[in-house]
Amino acid sequence: MTADSPASADVAHLDIGGETVELPIVRGTEGDDALDIAKLRSQTGYITLDPGYGNTGAATSAITFLDGEQGILRYRGYPIEQLAEQSTFLEVAYLLIWGELPTREELDRFVTEVTHHTLIREEMRHFFDSFPHDAHPMAVLASGTVGMSTFYPDSHEIFDADAVEITINRLIAKLPTLAAWSFKKAIGQPYVYPRNDLGYAANLLNMMFAVPSEAYEVNAQVAEALDLLLILHADHEQNASTSTVRLVGSTHANLYSSISAGISALWGPLHGGANEAVINTLENVVADGGDVKKWVDKAKDPDDPFRLPGFGHRVYKNHDPRATIIKRAAERVLKATGADDELFDVAQRLEEIALSDDYFISRKLYPNVDFYSGLIYRAIGFPKNMFTNCFAIGRLPGWIAQWKEMIESPETKIGRPRQVYSGAQARDYVPIEQR
Ligand code: ACO
After folding, report:
1. Is 345 a catalytic residue?
2. For 364-389, how does the pLDDT look when each residue is reduced to its tens digit (9 = 90+)?
3. Which of 220, 229, 320, 411 lies 20 to 30 Å from 4 when distance is taken between CA atoms?
4. Mind giving me the DSSP string for 170-236?
5. pLDDT for 153-190, tens place per residue?
């Protein structure tokens, strides 16, 4: 494979079976260039094989830039550190979905829209009644999300700009209500209706923790920390759940079903479910006597399937910039809530030992976004099985932005990977008596 003067060449040349094929080079704005192999099969008969898609670009996208080697994350060009410091979750949602930071007027309109769609249809209460009390909140959230499409048939009009806008606003407004009600169902408490006088994060906290029998006051610092967590989770380019949303959306399924599929993908412990796994591990370390080194050794043992949850990332081979911000936020929340958390102490010791250990250094394994986020959720009072629901609320604007970009792109085709078949060659059917 050659590319004449790679920095400026428009094509690379691939020698294959004595033939030379030209592969166009697609240039990204931040130097992340790609070989366009779309015609490779028709020209050569070959496909490319990349299980896990570690080296496969599935889209050109103008939403999020991340450089895993340098630990850089930007939404629409804005550094995550600046957004975390100066913005709000709804402003970031607007930025991701509509492409630019809103003016005051645009933001006010967006916030008003989102705030006035927070109620879910009353018939949906029966959905919650029908689930078993110990249903995992992620299952309820995914079901409720696709269930909403039954109430809003306009969501099937995916090329109608007005229908798309109202679907987007409904989703952002209603997901916290679904998430909070899935929790109330699990603990047998009455559902708490949204309060439109509260901010986005404060309303979620109120729906989660208020009860009709006594007053509940939202702690402003806690609401601020939750808003920050939502910002940090809001997009992460073509991760597993986002790719799922794009793939389902590429079939022209409606936005509710695409997002529901993304929620299901996020559930897995190798993805959004890792924050729950981190707390389980920290609890196990404490219950086991607090010997942090023993658990680091366990994670390094090739004969032990255990891996340190919250460490490592497919793309970041340096500090995950979100983890750095979250660690500082965890300190603030623990202070604000007065929680003296032994697990935070264990987490810091684990991090310290892992970061000075050759196994982790040589594999470039650093704490990821999930390592400290679970500690914040825990200090706020969320039970472990609600952590990933909160992550889903945060990731929602990113999923929507990526879906919208995909639907609007003239390059989009139905997502349909190929395979290298490795099964039996053609053979004749054998009747059951002869097998
Ligand atoms: N603990 C111990 N060893 C690890 C860890 C870990 N957390 N993560 C990776 N490794 C090791 C692997 O065993 C492998 O070692 P080897 O080369 O000796 O075989 C090497 O590091 C490379 O790991 P891969 O599995 O090839 O990396 P991949 O990019 O496929 O996986 C993943 C990334 C899934 C995140 C992985 O690091 C992991 O399982 N981490 C724990 C789960 C987690 O925190 N997930 C959340 C990710 S962030 C998010 O989704 C929001």
Report:
1. no
2. 998 888 888 988 998 898 999 899 99
3. 411
4. HHHHHHHHHHHHHHHHHHTPPP----TTS-HHHHHHHHHH-BTTB-----HHHHHHHHHHHHHHS--
5. 999 999 999 999 999 999 999 999 999 999 998 888 99
